[in-house]
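Hi support team,

I'm filing this because I wasn't sure whether my run with 6-O-phosphono-alpha-D-glucopyranose finished correctly. The job status page said complete, but I'd like someone to confirm that the output block is well-formed before I use it downstream. Pasting the exact inputs I used:
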Amino acid sequence: ASYDTAGHAHFLIKEISEQPAAVERTLSGRVDERFATAHLGGLNLDAREARAFRRVKILGCGSAYYSGELGAQLIEELARIPAHAEPASEFRYRNPVIEADTLYIAVSQSGETYDTLAAVQEIKRKGGRVLGVVNTVGSAIARECDGGVYLHAGPEISVASTKAFTSTAVAFALIALHFGRVHDLSPADGRRICAGLKALPGQIREILAQEGSIAKLAAEYAQNAGMMFVGRVRGWPVAREGAQKLKEVSYVHAEAYPASELKHGPLALIGPELPTVAVVPDDELVEKNLTTLGEIRARHGRVLMVGHTAPDPKYAEDCILVPKNEPELDPILLGIPLQLLAYHAAVALERDVDKPRNLAKSVTVE
Ligand code: G6P
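And here is everything the job wrote out:
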């Protein structure tokens, strides 16, 4: 098949704009509001098997790894199973211990990333059970796994991943809901998550409608040599992916730190020349996050807050507001403005948006 940008300036913005439809396809036929759970036939696990796992280990590279971090949080929150994400590349080089009561999940948009495939093969060689969260049907990783969830996000052409990242996070929300409901997640909480999932496409549309104002902020922030991205817990994987996106497409240096770690080192970098993007969900950590922003402002660092409620200007000079969903699902929405920020920074700096220097869409060699 051949694809074109369908009137968009680049594939990247086309794919960012396609996210409401991509998420609808990821959800399609999988949300069961009556029984407050998710149907994922491809997992090939019955309820007893799904209950038996004591741990979940998620593997992927690049944006797939960061979406796996969101997935690990969702699984811990909704199913209360300890879950952790690790770069597939690191995992496979350290002679990993494969445990019978751990469920392994490999994440890949292309399904062809060599490091991720090698990790899957090593787990299988040692008798472990691996599921895939993969976009490309019939790809090498999908074929190698024991089951999994296809994203159905549609083809992703631009090197930097956007809609596959978001659809992966949504797929993990479905997996977490499913595992939650075979563990201790109540029907009421299950229904709350079902309703939240169904609200996502419309809310993503509301965020995309702010593209004009985000583009203006991006053109200003792109003039800096670097940027700091911070977030706590639910905001932290979002901050990591936001920094990655900015680096990839605009070549502006970006560091991501947990907001709580700033004072243990990187606060030394903060000053007028290094602005911060802060991901601040409206959850039980919002006050702690605002205190951190106050510390940055006290050192004359400019702050752009991405959150749900406009902050007092003493905490942030600029803000991008996203609609509120359920606390567990809010990170999915908070990531969208950061994609637009990276895209418009790259446009302002006249970068090769869809094919950044030195990068490939999928790395199929070691
Ligand atoms: C490459 C791309 C990244 C991508 C990563 C994993 O490095 O440049 O954008 O996140 O591979 O790709 P995958 O297809 O496995 O998700």
